[in-house]
Amino acid sequence: MSEKLVQVNNLCVDYVTFDGKVRAVNNVSFHINKGEILGLAGESGCGKSTIAYSLMRLHRPPALISEGEILFEGEDVLQMDEGRLRDFRWKDTSMVFQSAMNCLNPVKTIEYQFWDIFDAHGVVKTREESVEKAKELLKIVDIPVDRLFDYPHQFSGGMRQRVVIALALALKPKLLIMDEPTTALDVVVQREILQKVYELKETYGFSILFITHDLSLMVELCDRIGIMYSGQLVELAPSKIILQQPKHPYSHGLGDSFPTLKGELVEMKGIKGTPLDLKNVPAGCRFAPRCFNASEQCHNTAPILMKAGEGRFVSCHNQLAVQE
């Protein structure tokens, strides 16, 4: 049995508004094993990034982690004081954010941004030592070391993203969170970056939480995939079967929302309706108004995430029949 690195239990995150609290993440539980790549997929606004920020306690008002616990190697992240939390970030867990250009300081060289990390965590004693470490990290992500003293605007989009990955790996974290890391990049560069990330994971043994709305991209990279809908985890299963054998109607709809690269051309159906308004949550299943398989029970009683086979969990009263 794989050893757990992260255990999230009944996580709830609210956004405080003038009209009251809006629950963006509702009772989400999952774990990440050591050396594993776990994917979180779903429509925009489903709570994926909110969960990612929660793991590092990066939320600022009006966001509020109201319930649950986040255990990292048995230690509750939500109970860490500011000193421990500062040490935890980047040393134990780091993040590759959505937009590389927005993550890098545009008026500072790449070398300075490495120095900033090393100096803040007391990793190096001199600037020269920082430069040597930074050069080693650039080599890892296939960027020429003579680019170290360039500014972010002098790099292409793909190179900036690889610089951000190098910065995230600077302190050799045990967990790397990747929040839409290939947004706005072309498909060729996407594949290059994800292949490099996978190679680094195999070499250094860290775990990855990979967040995207692109299921086809996720299936190639991840060991397991969780499907989010309106702040809830509705299905969790090994990546090899979640598209071919979905048990939740929303997972089935996501699979029908993008074309396959092989086989006959078929009409994409998508998912009818619009995402749920979190200010007006129905009494029953949150997906019921859009579900082709909904019954009266679905509109009246909210389902809970239950075990539905080896290594998979589903939150649905009327699970789709699949052959295991």
Automatic annotation (TrEMBL):
Positions of transmembrane segments: none
Molecular function GO terms recorded: ATP binding; ATP hydrolysis activity
Gene3D superfamilies xrefs: P-loop containing nucleotide triphosphate hydrolases (3.40.50.300)
GO aspect biological process, one term: transmembrane transport
Protein's UniProt keywords contain Membrane: no
Pfam family membership, one: oligo_HPY
CDD domains: ABC_NikE_OppD_transporters
ABC transporter domain mapped to chain residues: 6-255
Keyword annotations of the record: ATP-binding, Nucleotide-binding, Transport
UniProt-listed PROSITE patterns: ABC_TRANSPORTER_1 (PS00211), ABC_TRANSPORTER_2 (PS50893)
Protein name per the record: Peptide/nickel transport system ATP-binding protein
